[in-house]
Design a protein that fits this description.
5 helices; single chain; two-stranded antiparallel ribbon; mainly alpha
């Protein structure tokens, strides 16, 4: 068994146990008349239960958030290279985002 699979199985087990615990808290809260606490615990249990039973190991993959630079989509309009956070950039005369160095060399 691969280490990554073992860690994934442990995460899934922890999510399942937390979902079961939150379900118990939700039932107990609803019986005591605390509706808001019961609803919040029930919603948390539903989310944790869903992530524990889904086939995807990563929540970012489940909801479709891109995590690579290729998915970020912020590229220089002149050179086509990705623009990383913290890098000097600005709009060119057409309103496209470009590196400051690329804009200065194009002038």
């Amino acid at each position: 068994m691969d280490l990554k699979e073992t860690v994934g199985d442990r995460k899934r087990l922890v999510r399942t146990l937390l979902a079961a615990g939150l379900t118990g808290v939700a039932i107990r809260s609803l019986r005591k008349g605390r509706r808001l606490n019961g609803l919040l615990a029930g919603a948390g249990a539903a989310v944790l239960g869903y992530t524990a039973t889904s086939q995807s190991e990563d929540l970012a993959e489940t909801i479709g958030i891109g995590t690579t630079d290729e998915d970020a989509g912020l590229r220089c309009a002149i050179c086509g290279e990705p623009i990383v956070p913290g890098q000097a950039r600005g709009p060119n005369e057409n309103g496209k985002t470009v590196h400051d160095a690329c804009r200065e060399s194009a002038e």
